[in-house]
Amino acid sequence: MRALGLIGAVSAIALAGCAAKPTEPTVADAIVRMAANPKAPSAGYFTLKGGPKDDTLLTVTSPVVIRVEMHESMTGGNMASMKPLDGGVVVPANSDVKFEPGGKHIMLYNINPGMKVGQTMRLDFVFASGLQLSAYAPLRAAGSAE
Ligand SMILES: [Cu+2]
Question: Please, are residues 134 and 62 in contact by the beta-carbon 8 Å criterion?
């Protein structure tokens, strides 16, 4: 029981640290939806919350993924396609930018096979201002409700 109490105290401190900085962009509600086929890329979603100044998200990486790309889905006629967001994504001051199904998203290629639904993946975000953030995304099954 003692060990459990210590873990609880450590996670409370970590959570307080995450919530504490309204002075710069933050990342909220990150999730990764694992592809049903382990050879296919998985998709990730989150909300970028702008700080007091405009900033630009340049890259997203993960220590357990070989390659992460930022994409935007487009629908034209009956074709769904996506294009890479190579120039980064502007996060205007005091505004939310959502990465969500049917819109902007990240694609994760070659996730470490040890990562399973129900676990949590670290995502690292680098901004043009030099800001670096990490978020922890729960891994969800393909087609799950949330
Ligand atoms: Cu994509």
Answer: no
